[in-house]
Amino acid sequence: MKYIHSLYIGLLSLLFIGCQEEQLNNMQTGGFQISLQDVAADITTKTLPENLEDPVVSNFQLKITNEVSGTSIYNGAYTSNLIPASTGVYSITATHGDNPTLAKDNPYYKGDTTGVELEEDQVASVELKCRVANALASVVYTSEAMFKEVFTDYGVKVGIGTLMVDLENGTTESAYYQAGSIPTFTFVGTLKGNGKEVTKVLEDTKLTDPSTFAAGQHCKITLSLSTTTAGVNLDIEKVEATPVTITATIPMEWLPAPKVSATGFDENKTLTIYETVAPDAASIDFEVAQPLQDLSFTLNFEDEQFTSLNKDYQLSTMTDEEKIALSDAGITLPLIGSNEPKIAFSQAFNARLLSKNDGVVNNKITINSVQANNRENKDEAPLTYIIAVHKPEFSVSVLPGNIWTKEFIAEEITVEEGKGDLGIIKKDLVYQYQDSDGEWKNCSNQDSRQQIFAEHPQHRNYKVRALYRNVLASNEVDVELEEPKALPNGNMEEWISSTRYKQPYYQPWSNEAWWDTNNNETMSKSYLTYPNYKCFPTTTYTDGGVSGKAVVIRSVAVNGWNSEVMGEGKTRGVFYAGSTSEDGTMTEGREWFSRPSQLTFMYQYDSYDNEHFGVYVELISQDGTIIASGQFVSTQGVSISNFEKVEVPLNYMDSSLKAGKIKIRFVSVADGESVSTRKQTISIPAGSYKIYGGSALTVDDITLVYDK
Questions:
Q1: What pLDDT band is residue 646 in, cutting at 50, 70 and 90?
Q2: Direct distance between the N- and C-terminal alpha carbons of the chain, in angstroms, rounded to an integer
Q3: CA 340 – CA 334 distance, rounded (Å)
Q4: Do 636 and 530 fall into the same domain?
Q5: Are the C-beta atoms of 442 and 429 separated by less than 8 Å?
Q6: Of 13, 512, 538, 647, which sits 20 to 30 A from 86 (CA to CA)?
Q7: Half-sphere exposure of 667 toward its Cβ, with a 13 Å CA cutoff?
Q8: Do the domain assignments include residue 234?
Q9: 160: domain range?
């Protein structure tokens, strides 16, 4: 409880005057000497902080009066010099303060003695016994928490006559009044909820007893609340009247109030932690001039691990269970009596704090009051410190090249420097994708961060994320699986039959061209004689396919001779993905954005002159890079009369690139081989024709297979 306000300088001087009894010594010069005790030694015993100036004793007033004549021989500021005086009997008084009728924290000190006899040519050394010459009152609340539940604010008004001072809750102020006054005490509070002000005059026999308010008496009123069926009653628990004395030591109230600082917290009183990053220990530190007397603080942790610790604490009244719970969590409290008190948050405690997916987890520690040398840090209280725990900042990505038709691979997470520990996060991390129903599911292979679907899913759009400890999610990445697109007219059922230069002419489409042939190369102009030897298609179709039509690709010889004699112009048949111009120029490749694993087809082959056929596939990126290729060359000279299946695997040279174009080419004679023909009669949909023909490749059911 604070008894004084600003009399530090004066009372210290008064103490150094120190007065117990009159001592007279014969000196060569007559007068009074108000002696001072050893100032340095007295201050050192109280370990005053260095930043405080030494007290100025001249602020005290001294008055020396001759008791016989009533004459004042000295009335002024204290001096340590000899005050001359003639022989006589004197009264000596030292005062500090103005003895107000009623004020807060305004004590009045007085020391006096009478009958001090001064003989001729003697010096009287006088020490005055000092005391509190007015009286004071203060109020204590037994359960501040209960009062705060009922009232938004509350306090006690102390009155003398028309004068009034307020002793508000949460302060250590005292009301000072002249000794012998009988003050009134009225409790005033504002109810929570309706905001109604309630008052109650405090009545107790001691509050009408003059001895309670005698000089140097401290009236301490203790109030409490009790519950009844009708509501809440305000009770006077007790009224105590105790003397206030000033000894030769400096009162602790004159030392500076405790101050609060912190280690590890920033200027905003915040300790920022990123979960998984090894944190430092931290503490809230208390600078005290005297050993810690008490500490009031409140914990309000958002971290669900520690919400059971959330409450108001008073260090002096904490139970062993409360202290053990905090200690087990990693929070160390100071001991009452400690010279360097602090609340310490261990590195282990800070490392256990968890974050949440959205926002910051704020764990608040509010210092309500710190008490030492009978003073509180009321000028700066309450102070709230925050341990702010952020989620680790990690992100996931999926490279375009790692997205296939029924699988994708996520890249290993990256962690922003200083905002997460990759090694710790990886120990409890799963990679997930969001299905079409919105449900997050774990990827099928966590080691490779890979999701493999058993079948090609109808839904091709997903979101991918990484999830740490099943709570904290990374960014979400959109993934669109490649379409397992089928080749247009892969069953060879679509054809346009017409004529070119009066000869049968076939195009492998009905509405939209995708496949084409080199027919325009071997049918460059019209001939009247022997047209079949001079203008004939390499590629036709047959109705004898696997289950319908099939393409027939054969070698033919065409020449411009006016006879049946075969000359130059032996040409292998070509069936390919692309387009052929009117003049026979072939442009290979069609737009294609999916990446198959292989090409399959059914075939028959009529080999002539020990020839073999070839199939060639290339997958090309949008920038023209060949990213995959495959080929099949049949066994030389082997004819196949029944349909057989061929699988052509695609070898990926660079799977990081996406596809932009595909090339597929079937030739009746493999690349690099010479073409042979002979005169023969063949059947095509337009009828039987006598031509110069060679090896013939029949192909059906051309399919791309997507294994990834």
A1: very high
A2: 80
A3: 8
A4: yes
A5: no
A6: 13
A7: 19
A8: yes
A9: 135-251
Average pLDDT over all residues of the chain: 87
523 to 151, 488, 695: CA distances (angstroms): 105, 25, 19
Q: Is the pLDDT at 705 greater than 90, yes or no?
A: yes
Q: What are phi and psi of 222, to 5 degrees?
A: -110, 120
Question: Are 164 and 302 in a shared domain?
Answer: no
Claim to verify: residue 127 and residue 105 sit in the same structural domain: yes
Task: For residues 613 and 634, give the distance between their C-alpha atoms in angstroms, rounded to a whole number.
Answer: 6
pLDDT at position 249, please?
A: 30
| Residues 541 and 652 occupy one common structural domain | yes
d(CA 578, CA 516): 6
Q: Check which CATH number belongs to the domain holding 450 and give it.
A: 2.60.40
Q: Report CA-CA distances (Å) from 128 to 18, 59, 137, 665.
A: 5, 16, 26, 122
Closest alpha carbon to 430 in 414, 441, 419 = 441
pLDDT tier for residue 524 given thresholds of 50, 70 and 90: confident
Q: In the structure, what pLDDT confidence band is assigned to residue 78 with cuts at 50, 70 and 90?
A: confident
572 with 630, same domain: the answer is: yes
Model confidence over 222-254: pLDDT tens digits? 999 887 766 678 889 999 998 876 543 344 555
Distance, CA of 155 to chain centre: 41
d(CA 90, CA 64): 7
How many helices and strands, by DSSP H and E, does the chain display? 8, 54
The closest of 600, 491, 490, 613 to 546, measured between CA atoms, is 491
**DSSP 8-class letter at 259:** E
CB 529 within 8 A of CB 559: no
